[in-house]
Specification:
By secondary structure, the chain is mainly alpha-helical. Helices cover 70% and strands 10% of the residues. It has a three-stranded mixed β-sheet. Strand 1 and strand 2 form a beta hairpin. Helix 2 packs antiparallel against helix 3 and helix 5 packs antiparallel against helix 6. 39% of the residues are buried.
Length: 308
């Protein structure tokens, strides 16, 4: 095959790439359209229904629109093949997307909490407006809708092994939790405790901040070449040690690279083997590991000689 023919072949997307692209577009479309519609309805219900908690909830849902778009952008960029400037690939774009998602949640949560606390500390609760039934209905619809979006996005995030879409899934669930807070606050206000609506806003803030912390922590961990952990490395070491011609595993280090893993390995083989045979052993172990541990993007193997 000539070089031109090879280039044309490599440029043709595989069926797997097409399926992934289709899934990414579908998840993003569901997230964006669903959140725009839900945000508009909750904002309308919050204003008409005199509920600050529901307005805060609507703002949270609106932030999901930007979050889903950022997740979509991050996942698409991470799928780009390695190039001259980025020989190790672009997987860390997902970490960047997750960082942005976490920051959006952090800012959203702090803003909602600030508004709620100002109303609580202001006193004069008797002057606070009492929410109406439309705000209560919006909270119930939001809980059901956002929980469904959480499970839908979570399913495809696992299929794609995508931390950015998993972060987006948890963003949906945080919105469902915030709607539960809205439901309790609105119901309490309707029962004669107007301050409950403002307290609900603060509760929503706490849920959002917790999810923000988890997403930011995970993204930063994966950007710092963090080890995959003792359990993962032990399972990998045991698998390699059981391979034919391996005398001993001297060293194994793992590091996260976005949603992929890099492995550095030193192992002992018979020191009397010819170079070609020793090289063949390393190649076989390399291929077996990458086939068995699908998250491993590359394993670098150094052979140490042992005299049997």
């Amino acid at each position: 095959m000539t070089t031109n023919e090879e280039n044309r072949t490599e440029s043709i997307p595989s069926k797997e790439d097409i399926n992934e692209t289709s899934m990414i577009r579908r998840i993003s479309l569901v997230g964006i359209v669903g959140n725009v519609a839900l945000s508009a309805f909750k904002l309308f219900a919050g204003i008409v229904g005199n509920s600050g908690a529901m307005v805060s909830d609507a703002v949270h849902s609106l932030s999901d629109v930007f979050a889903t778009f950022i997740a979509f952008l991050g996942v698409r960029l991470s799928k780009k093949a390695a190039d001259k400037e980025h020989p190790y690939g672009h997987e860390r774009f997902e970490c960047v997307a997750s960082l942005l998602l976490g920051i959006i949640l952090l800012i959203t949560g702090l803003g909602i909490g600030k508004t709620g606390l100002e109303k609580i500390f202001a006193g004069s609760y008797e002057t606070l407006a009492i929410p109406s039934m439309i705000a209560l209905a919006a909270a119930i619809i939001s809980i059901i809708s956002k929980e469904a979006m959480y499970w839908y996005t979570r399913h495809y995030a696992k299929v794609l092994n995508s931390p950015a879409f998993m972060a987006d899934a948890w963003h949906h669930r945080s919105d469902a939790f915030s709607s539960i807070g809205s439901l309790i606050g609105i119901a309490g206000a309707m029962l004669g405790f107007p301050v409950m609506d403002s307290i609900a806003s603060v509760v929503i803030c706490l849920f959002i901040l917790k999810v923000s912390y988890d997403i930011l922590k995970d993204a930063i961990t994966k950007m710092l070449d963090t080890s995959c952990g003792e359990d993962y490395e032990k399972a990998l070491t045991d698998y390699i040690a059981a391979q034919e011609d391996v005398v001993h595993v001297d060293m194994l280090h793992s590091r996260m690279f976005g949603n992929k893993t890099y492995i550095e390995l030193e192992l002992q083989v018979d020191g009397n083997l010819p170079l070609r045979e020793a090289h063949a052993i390393a190649e076989r172990i390399h291929d077996n590991v990458e086939a068995h541990f699908l998250d491993v993007k590359h394993i670098t193997i150094h052979l140490n000689p042992t005299t049997l």
